[in-house]
Design goal:
Largest sheet: 5 strands, antiparallel
Distance between the termini: 109 Å
Number of strands: 13
Strand content: 15-25%
Number of helices: 12
Shape: elongated
Structural class: alpha+beta
Radius of gyration: 35 Å
Order of helices and strands: EEHHEEHHHHHHHHHEEEEEEEEEH
Helix content: 40-55%
Strand order of the largest sheet: 7-6-5-8-9
Number of domains: 2
Length: 466
């Protein structure tokens, strides 16, 4: 008769019961400590001769909760905290050792380390095991081949080459057009180009290309709108009627659903006849809006990128990193050509006035401005001597004829979400009254501007709307 060996004891599972006690419970000292203190509190109250105004059963429950919680649950919680601290320290040490031995490449592991885990501090994160530190990448070793049929022939070895890692991240864009735009174009464009160059994944590059295209369309449109508004304000303006119609189209968008990517590309396309009649209005804009053989116009490139954004917004976004990389490869020539055709904006820089003081002797205004060009958030300071007065803290376009005010299209306002001053553009306003809503170029947050709502509504109206 064979004697069966006793069963093996169950393995200890740390913090598997209520995230405080180990399983099985009969092997956990913290569980017995809590149970003993609960019984001690109940027995002490039940056998006490001290008179009380409350029922004995109520005092017993209260004593059990106090004794069990203070002398049982609290030590178990402290043990959990110490385990988490030791686990984090061991993980940090393992990462340090792995990074020191693995070099620049590590192969991800599909199996976590066989270790007990007390869980992070967040209750939601405790339901899943954390990702462990991947082991360092080791190249494949030489695998011996089974001996041949002929025993007189010496055994050979088969060399197994390690498979190179497959990367789905395209290289960072290092185009010359992007570098030039980042240094010399208006800050909204340059900032978007900087985000594009610093994108680490194909998905980030995909979004950055579309954001750069929209920033480019907005910047060209607002620069042209400021110049047209200045032409309308002149009593002898030769372009009053065409400029009024163009500004009326913007007013309709502002007082309607708001401006979008399509609003700016459509408005620029309709502006082509006007700038053809007056090419000196904004030097270089007329040439940029025309298509040449083998060289599409800036409108063609922006419309193609706008169609891609609309396709993505209606469920056509890529689903894999490889598809993102393919889309980016097709979109990069478009954005680079649009930036190249938009270099005329270098001759119409944006300025943000800081202060202005009148000089009596030469009868000019000494104006201190910030040049809102390039990707750096701290703008370069420039001083000018102008004969016309300008307002403080206001955007201007510096053209060949002098400064042109950009209000109410562009403003510098404090963003309550970012807690800093942002360069923003007009998005929409109510048809009859109320503040204007501006959007930050950088973050896209909505910023309410009370005093510019009337200025947007003061733009020329279409004849059919009157």
């Amino acid at each position: 008769m064979t004697v069966q060996p006793p069963p093996m004891p169950r393995s200890k599972r740390r913090n598997s019961v209520l995230r405080l006690y180990d399983g099985p419970l009969y092997r956990d000292w913290a569980f017995w400590l809590t149970t003993g203190n609960v019984l001690l509190g109940v027995i002490s109250i039940a056998t006490s001769d001290t008179p009380s105004t409350t029922p004995v059963w109520f005092d017993s429950i209260l004593g059990a909760v106090m004794c069990g919680g203070l002398f049982g649950v609290v030590p178990a919680w402290l043990r959990l905290w110490i385990r988490r601290w030791r686990w984090r320290r061991s993980q940090h040490r393992a990462q340090t050792i792995a990074s020191a031995h693995s070099g620049s490449f590590q192969q991800p592991s599909t199996h976590p380390f066989p270790m007990q885990w007390a869980g992070p501090a967040n209750w939601r994160e405790r339901t899943a095991m954390p990702a462990s530190t991947p082991p360092p990448y080791q190249p494949a070793r030489h695998a011996p081949v089974p001996p041949p049929a002929n025993r007189n022939q010496p055994p050979t070895e088969r060399i197994v080459e390690p498979r190179p890692p497959v990367s789905v991240t395209p290289p960072h864009p290092a185009s010359n057009e992007l570098a030039i735009a980042r240094k010399s174009l208006q800050h909204p464009i340059a900032r978007s180009v900087r985000v594009l160059q610093q994108a680490h994944t194909a998905r980030d590059q995909y979004d950055a290309v579309l954001d750069t295209a929209e920033a480019l369309a907005i910047t060209i449109s607002l620069t042209a709108a400021a110049v047209l508004k200045d032409q309308v304000s002149k009593p002898d303006g030769v372009l009053s009627d065409p400029a009024n119609r163009a500004l009326a189209a913007l007013r309709t968008a502002y007082t309607g659903a708001g401006t979008t990517f399509g609003t700016w590309t459509t408005w620029l396309g309709n502006l082509r006849p006007l700038v053809d009649d007056s090419p000196t209005l904004i030097p270089g804009l007329s040439s940029a809006l025309h298509t040449h053989p083998g060289n599409p116009s800036v409108i063609d490139d922006l419309n193609a990128l706008r169609a891609e954004r609309n396709h993505a917004a209606h469920g056509g976004r890529p689903h894999t990193m490889q598809e993102y990389a393919v889309r980016v490869a097709h979109m990069m020539p478009r954005i680079e050509n649009a930036l190249r055709r938009s270099r005329f904006l270098e001759d119409s820089p944006w300025l943000l006035t800081v202060s202005s003081s009148f000089q009596p002797r030469p009868r000019v205004f000494d104006v201190r401005t910030q040049r809102v060009m390039g990707d750096h958030p701290h703008f370069e300071t420039q001083n000018f001597l102008w004969r016309e007065p300008v307002a403080d803290d206001m955007f201007y376009v510096l053209g060949s004829g002098g400064p042109v005010m950009m209000s109410p299209f562009v403003a510098s306002r404090f963003c309550t979400h970012c807690h800093q001053v942002e360069v923003c553009y007009a998005y929409r306003t109510n048809r009859h009254d109320g503040p204007a809503t501006f959007k930050s170029f950088d973050s896209g947050h909505d910023i309410g501007v009370e005093e510019l709502g009337d200025d947007l509504r003061a733009l020329p109206e279409r004849q059919r709307d009157r």
